[in-house]
Design goal:
The chain is 35% helix and 26% strand. It is α+β, with helices and mostly antiparallel strands. The longest helix is centred in the C-terminal third of the chain and has 22 residues. The protein is elongated and about 45 Å long. The site of zinc ion (ZN) has 8 residues, from loops.
Length: 88
């Protein structure tokens, strides 16, 4: 279970993946079912790895730092995508 994916309805992290598929741009789309409130939502996970290492080298910093900033960015993206999607 990936950490950091919270239910948009009740903020529980006890969600189960009910369906997942890769997309053309190297991200993974997952349908999730919340174990706490039964709500369904979709998450997008971007496959990182090499990109993080390269960015860290380029910026002369740690991969951790890059990952931290990246998760902030992803959270921001999640929030704005949620705000434009109809409730599911
Ligand atoms: Zn929930």
């Amino acid at each position: 279970m990936a950490k950091g994916i919270l239910c948009p309805k009740c903020s529980s992290d006890k969600s189960m993946v009910v369906d997942s598929r890769g997309t053309a741009d190297n991200s993974i789309r997952r349908r999730r079912l919340c174990g706490a409130c039964g709500g369904r939502f979709t998450s997008y996970e971007i496959v990182v790895g090499e990109g993080v290492e390269m960015a860290a080298q380029e910026l002369k910093t740690q991969a951790d730092t890059v990952e931290k900033e990246m998760s902030k960015l992803l959270e921001h993206i999640r929030r704005s995508v949620r705000s434009i999607l109809p409730n599911q």
